[in-house]
What does this fold into?
Amino acid sequence: MNALLRKLGKCGFRLFLASVLAGLGSAAGVAAPPLGYLQSFGSKADSILNLTWGLLIISILVVVVMTALVLWAIFRSRDVSRDERGLENIESSKRSVHVFEFGLGLTMLILIGCVAWTMVTLAAIDHPHEKPAFTLEITGQQWWWKIRYLSDQPSQIFTTANEFHVPVGVPIKIKLRSKDVIHSFWVPALTGKTDLIPGQINTTWLEADKPGVYSGQCAEYCGAQHAHMGLRLIAESAEKFEAWRKDQLKSASEPAASNAKAGLVVFESRCAGCHAVRGTSAGGVYGPDLSHLMTRATLADGTIPNKGGYLAGWIADPQHIKPGSRMPRVALSGEELQAVTAYLRTLR
Amino acid sequence: MAQISAIPIVDATPELARKLDGIWTSGSGVLGWLSSVDHKSIGIRYIVTAFIFLLMGGVEALVMRVQLARPDQHFLTPEQYNEFFTMHGVSMIFWYASPILSGISNYIWPLLLGSRDMAFPRLNALSYWIYLFSGIFLYASFAAGVAPDAGWFNYVPYASMDYNPGINIDVYSLALILLGISTTVGAVNFIVTLLRTRAPGMSINRLPIMVWGTLTASVGNVLAVPAVSLAFFLLWLDRRFGTHFYDVPTGGQPLLWQHLFWMFGHPWVYAIVLPAMGIVSDALPVFCRRPLFGYTVVALSTVLTMVIGFGVWVHHMFATGLPNIGMSFFSAASFVIVIPSAVAVFAWTATIALGRPRMTTAFLFFASFIVMFVIGGVSGFMTAAVPVDWQLTDTYFIVAHIHYVLIGINVFPVIGGIYYWFPKMTGRMLSERLGKWCFWLTFIGFNVAFLPMHLTGLRGMPRRIYTYGPDFGWNTLNMISSIGAFVLAIGILLFLVDVAISLRRGARAVDNPWDAPTLEWAVPSPPPDYNFVVIPKVASRHPLWEDRLGETGERSLLNRGCSLDDGRETLATTSIDAEPDAILKMPEDSFAPLILAISLSGLFVAMLAQSVGGGVLALCVGFIAMLTWLWPERVTFRPVEESHG
Amino acid sequence: MADAIVLRPDRGSVSDDLKKSSGWWGMLFLVATEAAVFAYLLFSYYYMAIENHSVWPSSAPSMKLALPNTIILLVSSVTVWWADRQYIAGRMTEAMDGLAASVGLGVVFFGMQLIEWHNKTFTLASDPYGSLYFTITGFHMAHVVVGLVIMATLILWLALGHLSDRRNSAVSIAAIYWHFVDAVWLTVFFTFYITPYLS
It folds into this structure.
């Protein structure tokens, strides 16, 4: 029995090691998962990642060593001659006490080192190394993100929702507020989590060093649709960002097609209570700003893609797609639905 | 009154045993069971009830794993999922993890300590009845479709009236406050028992580590439980009486909730593992055929862990925007708390290495516990670093961490402990054959379910989401975890099958089937109601191994001692050196604890219904029950001392 | 090794022996857990005061009633202590008198606290300060009422002769509880009435 267990122990141990390495490989690998954080793309996340890897490697080593030690302790060869019911000699040899003390001492040294490294990292990422390019004010609410680009000049302030752009290579300051319950802002590739707590304003910052699309997610349980409260951050060159920003500042133009014109009428009467579109009389603040809806890749904050029949499906029955969502089922006739969808499709 | 009367030291004889039997045996039938104050009966009730909650929490988990096995599933609605994950956490953390350890401690402490019962037998019964009724109170909400749905941690404002107007949160709040009474009362019982009713000679350095563990947890509970009871009480006031503790528009502070909750929550997680670690510290050496290596440092590390445990709670709040200086302190403390845990891990490993392992089922659970302790420990160690925590927190990495520490450090020692003590409790052995199957299925299932979750978390899967999209890279990992969960469930099921079969057909157990050293193995299996025919006198940590260990020349005295047979009596000793101090008169069976528990539960039902009349009635009944309980009819103690002439 | 365990003869000091009753120890730890409740309540007060300094009342509440009330409660602790000593010395009637005095003083405290509550311009539901004030003083009042019930019960038992064996520790145990209620009041009084002057 013991020999079999010994074999099982060795086998299991190797399997365990292999799976750990494979797992880490996949997590850090080329096809990094959208919300994974074993790859970083900004100076803040870089510092955090170094410490993460450090602690992860120490952890894995500790587990490997201790598992090996326990297995050795169980299976190591012993004299066979002892009577089964006998008791072992309890004289703790000086050697075992020394080994114990050594292990404890090593543990303490490692811990002190980790404390120091943690403090250094914390201090390093507290503030960006240069002045932030601009400040975003992000207000979380059940279950979407209102994102406001602040500026000293009131004419340069604009609002969008769930998806936002930043220029690469410069830090961005973010002020976080909540309209209702506690949420948490998290874009794993660029920054750790910061909570949005009603009644106070928390601040964070991030910086993207490479152009790309970075996913984020609300990371504090906030109710029924916490699962569908994502973020999409697009980092791009300074020129492309400027172009996007100027575009966002523009008001929506008058729709040309008659279908869309009819849709605007529906929109202003049925949707404007909650939604805003700059350039129209719709100025509702309870729901996301839709001025440039078609520039976003998803609808309902990451729940469905913004293409094909999804938009009409969402407007027709939001509760079916995102049960519990604050958007009610607005009773629209087939014509009205087609019209308003056509109008919304013009909002680029 | 100058008369000195001697209480002689006598031999343990069958006549004496019969006499004690007559004095101590509880009544028969349902009434006898309802009025019994025997710690063994109460302990078994605790264990059975806690296992029922474990199973319910486990079923809740399996349902969740079905929902999460694949992306975009609609097996559960979001609201249902949120109720399930809340009830899973609440059931496991509150209604299983602590009561199971209370139950085992309740059963075994007086036997370990050489006493006839706990210091407060009726209080013991009260704590069980309140526990049972609070659990029924909670689960009634599930049956009525109004289960709490804001997570076990119940953060405001989401748990406040504005966002959660139903009675779901009120049920949770009141059920938990009611349970808190049971926990507190039970903790006081353990502490006073430890301080007062040990056998002569069981000085503080001869206590089994399990006693240290439960004692430490009890002191922690006495100081920490009020925080959570208060947090929920203030929430109930906010919700139903319009107060402004947490609601933001009038200046309430959502973070006040988090502080109060975690000032309780962190010590609590140590309270639900330290006694289990103690079980391993006492039972593992038996299967290594030698005493525990480093007894003193392990005892000290137990206490130190709880003490430091009161100083780390903010590490649950690292993302809330607190100033760096405050967070740094708590971060450092969270690293420091690794040290006493490391001490224990090294001690257990050394015990095995320097011993001669016997590969029983119990040993397998205890040895594997060490590895899982280390895994759970390092994942916790990683979160002590504030910036790293900002990535790890609220992801499945934390889910992996908590299950390694909860299942690895609580459930595994519990199952191992039951394999160890089942013979003593029931007079029958569990099946080693079934036990090995149970162990391997549980161990493999658990690791297949939770080891990949570290990776799932590192790949960014957040906690508490009812579903996820197919393009996040979590699909395979979730499927693996779900499969593992079901294998784990089969393992647990097999354990229950083993218990059921062995109760009827298990091999008969002798007094000391494991050749273990502590006092409980000196009495028959199962023990008589009075535990010991004569109060033993203890001379070392390992009374039954003294001859063979040769640690000391003194010998414990097990067959000669005070009979204390003038009604129900046990011996009280001094706290540090355990010298005889007083004879304690123990109470007869009583219905007062049950009545008081019913009235307290009635009070909480009245509070839920906001019925003043009901509350007043409940208080009156409770008052009468307490009056009956405390009515002075007899003297409760008589001071004594040893005579040497 | 001892041949026997003996019943201790009566010596002068019974009070040492009272520490041998389990109930005495149980009450100590009950006091510890209830003290923790108040510690967390006061923590909540200080936390809110710091976070809310803009909307917290700027002036301290008047001590017109609270200060005499505090003294009344302190005196009631003295009478309980005295009653306990009388009981240990075997003077049952005096013990009952002492307890009755404590109950009387406690009832006065209760009444004056009700008047103070009535005079407040805010309620439990006005604002965080109001919620904290009434909750904390309310918790304390509940403990006072429990203490009054305990002492009244003791007077009844003394009158019926049930506590004639001086080793019964019921009076000492009740005294511990009442002293605790008093000590808690001092911390509550300090928090509400004194700290505003310190900031």
About this structure: Helices of chain A lie at 2-28, 43-75, 94-124, 238-249, 258-270, 310-316, 318-321, 334-344. Chains A and C do not touch (no CB pair under 8 Å). Residues 63 and 69 of chain A are 10 Å apart (CA to CA).
